[in-house]
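Morning, I've got a small favour to ask if you have a moment. The fold is given in discrete form, as structure tokens running alongside the sequence. I'd be grateful if you could look everything over and explain what you see. No rush at all, and the record is pasted right below.
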Amino acid sequence: KTGRGSGTVTSTPPGINCGSQCLMTFGKGTAVTLTAIPATGSEFAEWGDGCAGQNVACLLTLDADTHVTATFSGCIADRDSDTDADGSDLYLLAAGFQGACLSEFAAAFGR
């Protein structure tokens, strides 16, 4: 797991259920689905390495040792702030946030 957020990666078949890093052995040719589950205040950003380009659920058929990275972004902690001409604060949510982060941002700032 990388990024400023946090979360868990789980697998089907069962075996992987971890936060920052883990290692699991599956038999050659095993079809494995990895699922990224962001913690409260975080959002899944992307897969890297063996799952690069896939969505929240990563489908793999293991024919060799495979390294996978899940990146989680923090929501409110990843915002930038600035001041508007009238002195009020402006909060800019980093590009790419959606779903849980947008809901958290709206709740925190009444938007």
The first strand starts at residue 7 and ends at 12. The longest helix spans residues 99-109.
